[in-house]
Amino acid sequence: MNVADAIRGRLVVSCQAQDRSPFTDTGHMMAMAAAAVLGGAAGLRGQGVAHVRGMVDLGVPVVGLVKRSTPGSPVYITPGEADVTALTRAGAQIVAADATGRPRPGGEKLADLVAAAHTGGALFMADVDTLDAALAAVDAGADLVGTTLSGYTAGPVPDGPDVALVGRLSRHCPVPVIAEGRYRTRTQVSAAFDEGAWAVVVGTAISDPVNTTRRFAQACPHPRLDS
Ligand SMILES: CC(=O)N[C@H](C=O)[C@@H](O)[C@H](O)[C@H](O)COP(=O)(O)O
């Protein structure tokens, strides 16, 4: 079975830790990822070469990315070709990168990142924000498109996922569409599959206990103000 087929109709869990989280070290993140696999995750999405290398040993496909900020560029998800190569060397079977059409640091072209993924034996997942960006990514050779960056490139971040974009991409893109970004409920996950999603990625709602705690705390009459 190829990697895309292995995640078809299934859940992928993104295991990433925010800066202040006590889960940032590889050991804790591997425990989180192993729990996700035990719970039924058919794939994992991981940030950083060390985490990706560890996740590969858990026996499910790994979508790897590197978050790296560069002054003057808004692109921080796998900005460069060298990041792609580092991820394929770490064993990522799918490499995810920003494909929003915003200028990359150093002026690197999306097609070069796609080629680097393929040279390393991986599929390329285009993290997009719009249908136009998805179509351009497919033209550049992307193997999968994900709604990952919808809601993060203009205006305030919405509360819920962009299920409508899943539908638009499914109707117009000839590659698997991955629903990702702000999925918090089973109803939202089902809605994404109804709109044609190939797989759904859930991150924060499963793998970020800090955020989960904060959401419950904020529902209390006296939420702590420093959290
Ligand atoms: C926008 C951005 O940087 N997204 C990142 C992409 O890898 C991660 O921070 C998200 O956690 C991931 O996309 C899963 O989404 P959610 O955590 O909402 O389920």
Automatic annotation (TrEMBL):
GO terms for molecular function: N-acylglucosamine-6-phosphate 2-epimerase activity. It catalyses: an N-acyl-D-glucosamine 6-phosphate = an N-acyl-D-mannosamine 6-phosphate. Pfam families: NanE. InterPro entries: Aldolase_TIM, NanE, RibuloseP-bd_barrel. Pathway: Amino-sugar metabolism; N-acetylneuraminate degradation; D-fructose 6-phosphate from N-acetylneuraminate: step 3/5. GO terms for cellular component: cytosol. It comes from the Bacteria. Transmembrane segments: none annotated. It is an enzyme of class 5 (isomerase). GO terms for biological process: N-acetylmannosamine catabolic process; N-acetylneuraminate catabolic process. Its EC number is 5.1.3.9. The keyword Isomerase applies. Keywords: Carbohydrate metabolism, Isomerase. Converts N-acetylmannosamine-6-phosphate (ManNAc-6-P) to N-acetylglucosamine-6-phosphate (GlcNAc-6-P). Belongs to the NanE family. This is N-acylglucosamine-6-phosphate 2-epimerase. It comes from Micromonospora matsumotoense. The lineage of its organism: Bacteria, Bacillati, Actinomycetota, Actinomycetes, Micromonosporales.
